[in-house]
Design a protein that fits this description.
Number of strands: 20
Strand content: 25-35%
Mean pLDDT: 86
Strand order of the largest sheet: 12-18-17-16-15-14-13-20
Shape: globular
Number of helices: 5
Length: 380
């Protein structure tokens, strides 16, 4: 993914090899957290779409707006409690006295956006049945900065209300997203996250003339600091062997941030212009993770060079996806993994953050970021 330029180096120190914790890639997910599921513009009025999230079928829908306004986004468990048909295969209907509901395609049972059952068409007038007692699980959902986020609670059957909002990203400028690409990786989100933040694979996995090669490798020293539920590689000039930055002109300065449960973004400033490259990790199942790359910018280069930028993003995703498939060949034998400082320090931070998040939620206390300001050094 993206590396950056030299910062003041700290004194040389030994970096003994250390095995990753045995629980580093457990089956669990980070819960009580917001996950990206779609761009707002891709959830049209009156639409229903199916999304698998942490192995759960989730319906993402939107009611029809009034007087040209956008409708309400909602999220329901995508299973009708009657005969288990996917509600996403139904339609949004508007009946007198019920408001807008999701109609199941099998028997027409209708459910409000909050999950409550509004009607069972097969009932006759004198049949006593408490329709209001039937509910489909509803997930908290938010729209923010043109994106849709769904809250995945630790206890989905008895969820508490979200106690924090989705992240707000810097650099969402220039109107709607300029470039969006996604790919499903055959990996647990833990492996996808560690691969995303790995600074040393670039010269070997991403060998393009416009990026870098193993022949251009040199030592890097980057300053890092804790940030909200994560950390940031503090703002700096891009590396001299990262040629793609040169098309931006001027003197770009970049800051790269990671935040739980799975967001990485690079915010680039070139004078008054900005570029935001956001990567969202969405766990579909224990063995599949969706990687969504979204770019915003008010820089002219996105108007002129968009086809070439798209080719570059697709190339990166395919190369990373191919390496994940190769890695899976080894992972199926459940080997012990060896992580080293400093190149693998961010991978260790991710696991520390995850453990602290889970522990703090279990103990009902505030999250305490375990990361301390430091400088990391590696070659890439």
């Amino acid at each position: 993914m993206t590396a950056a330029a030299n910062a003041p180096a700290e004194p040389a120190r030994s970096a003994p090899e250390a095995k990753a914790p045995p629980t580093a890639f457990g089956k669990g997910f980070v819960t009580d957290a917001w996950y990206f599921v779609a761009l707002s513009r891709d959830v049209a009025d009156g639409s229903l779409r199916r999304q698998e999230l942490m192995g759960e079928p989730v319906l993402i829908g939107r009611t029809r707006g009034a007087q040209g306004g956008a409708g309400q986004v909602f999220a329901l468990r995508d299973i009708c409690p009657h005969r288990a048909a996917p509600l996403s295969a139904g339609r949004v209907v508007d009946k007198p006295g019920e408001g807008q509901t999701v109609e199941c395609p099998y028997h027409g049972w209708r459910f409000r956006p909050d999950g409550g059952c509004a009607a069972i068409p097969s009932l006759v007038q004198d049949q006593a049945f408490e329709t209001d007692r039937i509910k489909v699980r509803a997930y908290p959902v938010r729209e923010s900065q043109g994106m849709v986020f769904v809250w995945m609670a630790a206890d989905p059957r008895n969820p508490s209300e979200p106690d924090h909002e989705p992240p707000v990203f810097p650099g969402v400028v220039g109107g709607g997203a300029k470039l969006v690409e996604w790919m499903d990786f055959d990996s647990h989100i833990d492996h996808a996250a560690v691969g995303l933040m790995d600074p040393a694979h670039g010269p070997y996995v991403h060998q393009q003339w416009w990026w870098r090669s193993e022949h251009s490798m040199h030592e890097k020293a980057k300053a890092f600091a804790p940030s909200e539920r994560g950390w940031a590689m503090v703002r700096h000039a891009p590396s001299s062997n990262s040629r793609a930055y040169k098309i931006l002109g001027g003197a770009p300065a970049t800051e790269i941030t990671f935040r739980l449960p799975g967001y990485r973004w690079e915010h680039i400033q070139v004078g008054e212009k900005q570029v935001l490259a956001l990567t969202c990790l969405t766990p579909i199942t224990e063995t599949k993770t969706r990687i969504t790359q979204i770019f915003w910018s008010d820089h002219w280069v996105f108007s002129l060079a968009k086809p070439f930028l798209r080719m570059g993003v697709v190339a990166f995703l395919k190369q990373d996806g191919g390496m994940v498939n190769l890695q899976n060949e080894g992972l199926r034998y459940d080997p012990a993994l060896i992580w080293i400082d400093d190149a693998d320090k961010q991978a260790k931070w991710y696991q520390q953050l995850k453990r602290e998040w889970i522990k703090s939620r279990a103990e009902g206390r505030d999250f305490v970021n375990p990361i301390q300001p430091t400088t990391l050094r590696w070659k890439s």
